[in-house]
């Protein structure tokens, strides 16, 4: 079992969904995370606020409001999951409802520090 | 990590089904009504935006953190915080550019927030909003569209489908309605005294439409102050319809026509309540179209089978047609369209196959 990180980006929001549509999306999110959880895959996760600070320079002397990326590129949340490998992690991620609304899921393996570095 | 689902039973994560159907839709109407106390009707769209933001927040957090124990309370609290943010920003803006910013409402942010009604008093605000949306300064079509949007929590696309209209047309109509509310300085209050009577009819017409669209209009209808026979007739009608909700679907979730429904599954308590309202509706001099519809629905609830009633119903229906409906053609068309989604179809395309 390896750990994987899912990074969610919402993509461009083009329409203004109705409360009913938002509830439906929410229920699909809950159902998806529930499925991961029941399968013992879910290891945790959080949504992120859209604003923060970006530090740069020696000692972090340069502090700016951030991330200031294009809205569609801002990471909106993350999950940690257990999966047998990258293929399984990708398969599990396919159930994420964000994919139906123009968003993306980035799947990254957490580097196991006890293992020599692997090139992928 | 805020959530550890692998530790122990998932007691803090209720199953998905525990989130009430249409929760977002219902709460958005209630919260917009409450926030309007702070922002004023002139800034209706601002209240709508705050609620939209609140629902986004729920959408971002609940999947990760689990659905809160009191979802409605959570939404209300978040909306309250966001309102405070808006008011503080606005206050700052007014300091910087007093000639540009119009105050949303008099008073400082903290005083305004403190004055917000408690969640328990939400229904009073909902009723105020109902009368505001059905104000005679607006055309009937705008009243319906605005009520569905603001109180019913419907999206523009959903309203367009309900009213057989285009999304762009609904969008324009809503914009004009908000504009009219500002121009006519529509008050956020339930009219009293002589002014109340004529206003009730408009509210009832819109409530009936919303009921047909699946929104729980009953609470609002019950709180119309004073006694209005037509309001009681509407309540009776809604009870009779709602009594058949459980029986209108077969085992596979398909809609059943009235003639095919298992009458044993009709809710006897709701029917009894319907008759209590029907009795109260029998006061006064005038029979409204709602009285006739309630009467027809009552007959259906009493009858042992469908065929026995079909003929009598046709007669009453013809009579109902002679009474002028308050809403005109558009309303009738929308009502006719939404009826199949309700609990019954009055006119089956094929003749009933006989008593069951």
Word description of this protein:
The complex is a heterodimer of chains A (120) and B (356). Chain A is of the alpha+beta class. Chain A is built from 2 helices and 6 strands, in the order E-H-E-E-E-E-H-E. Chain A has a 4-stranded antiparallel beta sheet with strand order 2-5-1-6. The longest helix of chain A is centred in the N-terminal third of the chain and has 20 residues, at 19-38. The radius of gyration of chain A is 17 Å and the shape is flat. Chain B is globular. Chain B has 15 helices and no strands. Helices cover 59% and strands 0% of the residues of chain B. The A-B interface holds A 16-23, 25-27, 29-34, 37, 40, 42-47, 76-77, 79-80 and B 1-6, 10, 13, 15-16, 19, 22-25, 27-28, 51-52, 55-56, 58-64, 66-67, 153-158.
- In terms of quaternary structure, the protein is heterodimer
Order of helices and strands of chain B: HHHHHHHHHHHHHHH
Main sheet: strands, sense, barrel of chain B: none
Instruction: Choose one word for the global shape of chain A.
Output: flat
DSSP strand count of chain A: 6
Strand content of chain A: 25-35%
Task: State mean pLDDT of chain B (0 to 100 scale).
Answer: 75
Largest sheet of chain A: 4 strands, antiparallel
With strands numbered from the N-terminus, the spatial order across the biggest sheet of chain A is 2-5-1-6
List how many beta strands of chain B DSSP finds. Answer: 0
Give the averaged pLDDT of chain A, no decimals: 86
Using only C-alpha atoms, the radius of gyration of chain B works out to 23 Å
Overall 3D shape of chain B: globular
Helix content of chain B: 55-70%
Structure described in brief:
Chain A is built from two helices and six strands. Chain A has helices spanning 19-38, 86-93, and strands spanning 2-9, 42-47, 52-56, 62-66, 75-83, 104-109.
